[in-house]
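Section 5: illustrative case.
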């Protein structure tokens, strides 16, 4: 994909592309971890052609990979980061965008001299309840060192996921940090049906896990203990063996 971007820029000029949007780890497609060097290559191409690099960190942000943001885990700095979900621990809807200083200055300097804010708002911008939830969540992350705990628990969690590799129906296992994907072989001609069945089976076995098509997304809470991870993986194993 990075090579495709380079070819596009060489064919049509980088000036035809304003920005490249990418999830550092693709979440809803089943935890697709990028190949080594992929994000670095995107950064190089964007720098070469004057294109903004945007990381969608709605899933990976706030400790999911053991660092505050995936950009830090991969040591690749984008120009813009979008975030949500864990910003308030899912307690109330809230999203945010962070940008490099140069982008911020470009936007704010374009405003009328007497302007007092970035006038782009919508009805529920800076909702007091959402902001309170966000501040409280960030304080808990810091006080309880949950990002560090995520990093510490990652090895145990991923080892537990890898233990499923010999189950015949398992097609692929992927993971990084406290985020994993379990993909099963689809039923011929009926993609997604097996995943739907596994989601129901896991529910009745005591664990509710989101399946997208024939891939499950496993993302334990940062306060999970080892026995909780064992329970999740044991439930998954039973369902995979029963299907």
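Designed sequence:
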């Amino acid at each position: 994909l990075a090579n495709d971007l380079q070819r596009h820029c060489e064919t049509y000029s980088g000036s035809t592309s304003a920005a490249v949007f990418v999830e550092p780890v693709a979440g809803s497609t089943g935890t697709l971890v990028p190949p080594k060097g992929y994000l670095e290559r995107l950064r190089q191409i964007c720098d070469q052609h004057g294109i903004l690099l945007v990381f969608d960190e709605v899933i990976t942000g706030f400790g999911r990979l053991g660092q505050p943001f995936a950009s830090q885990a991969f040591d690749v700095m984008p120009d813009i980061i979008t975030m949500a979900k864990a910003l308030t621990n899912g307690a109330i809807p809230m999203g945010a965008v962070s940008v490099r200083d140069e982008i911020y200055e470009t936007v704010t300097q374009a405003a009328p001299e007497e302007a007092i804010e970035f006038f782009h708002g919508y009805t529920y911008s800076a909702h007091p309840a959402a902001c309170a939830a966000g501040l409280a969540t960030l304080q808990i992350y810091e006080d309880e060192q949950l990002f560090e705990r995520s990093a510490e628990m990652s090895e145990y969690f991923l080892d537990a996921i890898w233990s499923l590799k010999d189950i015949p129906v398992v097609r692929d296992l992927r993971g990084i940090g406290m985020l994993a994907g379990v993909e099963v072989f689809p039923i011929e001609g009926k993609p997604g049906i097996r995943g739907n069945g596994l989601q129901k089976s896991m529910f009745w076995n005591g664990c509710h896990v989101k399946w997208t098509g024939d891939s499950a997304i496993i993302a334990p809470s940062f306060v999970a203990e080892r026995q909780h991870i064992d329970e999740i993986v044991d439930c998954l194993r039973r369902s995979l063996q029963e299907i």
